[in-house]
Design brief:
about 500 residues, alpha/beta, Rossmann fold, 14 helices, globular, ATP-binding, nucleotide-binding, P-loop_NTPase
């Protein structure tokens, strides 16, 4: 049984001025199936790079197994998949075919150019390299990208059956729940380990956070009471001081004895009250330092402006096709005010094509009818948003957004304010996705059309969006592979099937 030991790990990016890890220590058994959790920008991918010794850090990382990272870049995507994978790892043909069969993908993909494979096939091909040899410890970064619901189940089954341990990063809560037996949470510069799956982690963290918050509120109330008492005592001591000097001016009153006694008593009271308050404030500071790992998730806002239309869309006997090959069996559905209709189906079944058709952007052939009111205000989250560019101010002005509302949602989604100075095209893909989402939230709309909105977003963002949608109850048409999200927000699910 081997271990990975992290001792006093300290790391921060110089250009960001923040510390991601501060004297963090951890022991990991390499037989654990470990889920790595944390907000975007908190350091999940950075930690994987540190484990691979790709970044300079302070502290120690001790391990006995060699780390193998997913996804590895493919140098030449035009070559056959077999040879593209050989450049990453040496293997026998039967070994890679065995893993592909376990992943429920036809080994024939080895003899096709890597660039011709679907996103799901490319993901499975790269995953198949991770467990060929047992002297590797896999670091699996976002394996569910490009996988539909069926593909996610297949990969989850594959990982569950492996005897080797690994670290996996994924924002799909159901997927993580199915494959891990431990959770490592990155919580504001520290690493916290939980035994169990993601549901256990959520429950334990919720209990811990609620206890800390309750203790904090209790202490704040006590400090407030003590401050009030101290102020009253201070006022009493001041009034007695005034009495002392007043009585000292009264001839023949015996005030010399009285004033000395009153002044000493007032001084003692003042000193004692200050001591009590100082002690309680010190305890409050100490308690607040214990609360540094509580995640405060600010609620998002949505510029939903429902109109008088009861029915926003009617689709009758719709079929879409390319070169006379139908993408799915014809469908009919209605989208009424307040409904949230989700389109489900395997990759390539035509979900995004339906959205493109509704927006008059589909370049294939179509049969069927679409009815809806004129001048319907629609706000979109697109899968492809590389055309977003410029500064955030330029972008919001170009899109006609309320700039402050746009920035507020960006910050609530987890983008630090210093990033606001960057041009959109210079941002990470996760940050650019949040720009696209914040744009949609700020646009005045009667209908929201979102195509895979959760890509690149962490589980905390998922929770924000769930709470927002359930609170506002907007009319939506949505494509998403995250089952947990759809189960919470969708009022109807339409599953597309191949012709």
């Amino acid at each position: 049984m081997s271990k990975i030991e992290i001792k006093n790990l300290t790391f921060g990016y110089d250009n960001q001025g923040t510390i991601l890890f501060d004297q963090a220590s951890l022991n990991v058994d390499t037989q654990w199936k470990l889920g790595l959790i944390g907000r975007n920008g908190r350091g999940k991918t950075t930690l994987l790079k540190i484990l691979q010794n790709q970044l300079a850090y302070s502290g120690q990382v001790l391990q006995q197994l060699e780390f193998l990272y997913f996804p590895q870049p493919i140098k030449d995507k035009k070559q056959l998949t077999y040879y593209a994978l050989q450049e990453i790892s040496n293997f026998e043909q039967w070994e890679i075919e065995r893993e592909l069969n376990l992943l429920q993908v036809n080994p024939d993909i080895l003899w096709r150019a890597f660039e011709t494979l679907s996103g799901g096939e490319q993901t499975k091909a790269l995953l198949s390299l991770l467990f060929i040899e047992d002297h590797y410890f896999p670091l699996i970064d976002e394996p569910t990208n490009h996988l539909d619901i069926l593909g996610r189940r297949q990969v989850a089954d594959y990982l569950k059956k492996k005897r080797q341990g690994f670290i996996v990063v994924s924002h799909d809560r159901i997927f993580v729940d199915e494959v891990v037996d431990h959770v490592l949470s990155i919580e504001k510069s520290q690493l916290e380990l939980y035994q169990g799956d993601f549901s256990v982690y959520e429950e334990q963290k919720k209990i811990r956070d609620e206890f800390e918050l309750a203790q904090n509120e209790k202490l704040k109330k006590e400090v407030s009471r003590l401050k009030k008492t101290a102020a009253e005592k201070a006022e009493w001591s001041r009034s007695k001081e005034q009495d002392k000097y007043g009585k000292a001016s009264d001839k023949g009153s015996g005030a010399i004895f009285d004033t000395g006694f009153i002044g000493a008593r007032a001084a003692r009271t003042m000193k004692r009250s200050k001591t009590i308050v100082n002690r309680m404030e010190a305890q409050l500071t100490e308690k607040e330092s214990l609360l540094k790992d509580v995640e405060y998730i600010d609620p998002l806002t949505m510029n939903y402006q429902p109109g008088h239309h009861k029915r926003l869309l009617t689709v009758e006997n719709l079929t879409l096709s390319y070169q006379e090959e139908n993408l799915f069996q014809n469908i009919s559905f209605e989208l009424n005010h307040g409904q949230r209709v989700a389109l489900a189906g395997a990759n390539g079944s035509g979900k995004s094509s339906i959205i493109q058709f509704l927006l008059n952007q589909f370049d294939g052939e179509s049969k069927g009818d679409l009815f809806g009111p004129d001048k319907l205000k629609i706000s979109c989250v697109r899968q492809n948003y590389e055309d977003n560019h410029g500064t955030l101010l330029e972008f919001s002005e170009d899109q006609g957004l309320n700039h402050q509302e746009f920035l507020n949602n960006l910050h609530k989604l987890g983008i630090e304010r210093e990033v606001f100075q960057n041009r959109i095209e210079q941002m990470s893909m996760g940050q650019r996705k949040k720009v696209e989402l914040a744009k949609s939230l700020a646009q005045p709309a009667e209908l929201y059309v979102w195509d895979e909105p959760l890509n690149y977003l962490d589980v905390f963002n998922h929770e924000q969006l769930e709470k927002l949608i359930l609170s506002v109850k907007p009319t939506m048409l949505i494509v998403e592979h995250d089952q947990a999200f759809l189960e919470k927000i969708a009022t109807q699910v339409i599953t597309l099937t191949k012709k």
